Amino acid sequence: MTLSQKIQALVDAESAKANTHGVILRVSSGDVRVDFKGSAGEATPDTRFPIASITKMFTAALIMQLFDEGRIKLDQTVQSILTDVDLSGLHVVNGVDHGPTLTIRHLMHQTSGLADYYESDLAADLKEGKDRSYGLIDVLRMTKALPPQAAPESGKSYYSDTNYQLLGAVIEQATGQTYDQALQSRICEPLGLTQTGVLQGNDIGFPVYHKDNRLNVPQILTSMTSDGGIISTMDEMLIFLRAFMDGHLFNPENAGQMCQWSQLFFPLQYGYGLMRIKLPRWMTLFRATPELIGHSGASGSFAFYAPEQDIYVIGTFNQADAPRRPIGFMLGVLNLVAKHRPSR
């Protein structure tokens, strides 16, 4: 069997598992000697799909562009930019109100300790198919109603979609554009991406499922905007991921700080809009596993780069009940590639 046939067999086997309605996968090496695009189940290789929290990479890239241009500073308080939004009382820990002093860096690095608005009743509503729209004020209300995760700079990252909703508002304030307008003019148009943008209306592309239930929640998905509301294709995600990793979207001299990793939750670490996966040897019978840098989403979406092998891996399960499922799948794909050709 060729490498492409072996990868397709892996995709087919994954699609045959319970609560799986479709799988799409794109695998490409930096030199393009490895180049696979396939699907199984309901999806096709060119299906547009909601990329969920991979959106955070786009948001982080836009923030770094604004930083490069001197429009914002990473250690600037969010309140100093969002002057029309009162952040007091948003993040109170042990009687100390951290809301007005939260910085852009805190949000980017997920070190604010803010509660995650998605973990309110919104997550349950999504999985039950109860649709509704919301905006930033609603996000802040939902966040205030939840207990904080930690005080800022508590030694690790605490994942919160609230952070990236606020960053979306920062982008809109600094550019005078909507988030989608900034996305189109600053990333999509320069890269020639015509199938990528913020979700609009009822068209969400490849449907999202929770187990066997197809989720008809276009209003929730479109409301996620800067924290998880982008739709794209595998080909366009590959273009974006290459540009991001090659330093073509922002000053590469500033890229180093985006890879300042903090512990998130096992086995993930978090940088600035980036996840890092590196399994310890005790989990793999003391065999080394590749480092993966990129982002995944709650729908089982994934877009990662393995620098040691110079391999990009992109795809989705579109299953809201299995957000961690891509990790083992990606490692299986990379194992096939490693067996097929020597590592760099």
What does this structure look like?
The chain starts with a helix and ends with a helix. It has helices at 3-15, 55-68, 104-108, 121-127, 136-144, 161-175, 179-191, 218-223, 225-228, 234-245, 325-340, and strands at residues 22-29, 35-41, 49-50, 92-93, 96-97, 197-198, 208-210, 213-215, 230-232, 262-263, 268-270, 275-277, 292-296, 301-306, 311-316. Strand 4 and strand 5 form a beta hairpin. The chain folds into 2 domains: 3-53 and 194-340, Beta-lactamase (3-Layer(aba) Sandwich), CATH 3.40.710.10; 55-191, 3-Layer(aba) Sandwich (Beta-lactamase), CATH 3.40.710. The chain is built from 11 helices and 15 strands. The radius of gyration is 19 Å and the shape is globular. With 344 residues, it is an alpha+beta fold. The protein has an 8-stranded antiparallel beta sheet, with helices on both faces. Helix 1 packs antiparallel against helix 11 (325-340), helix 2 packs across helix 6 and helix 5 packs antiparallel against helix 6 (161-175).
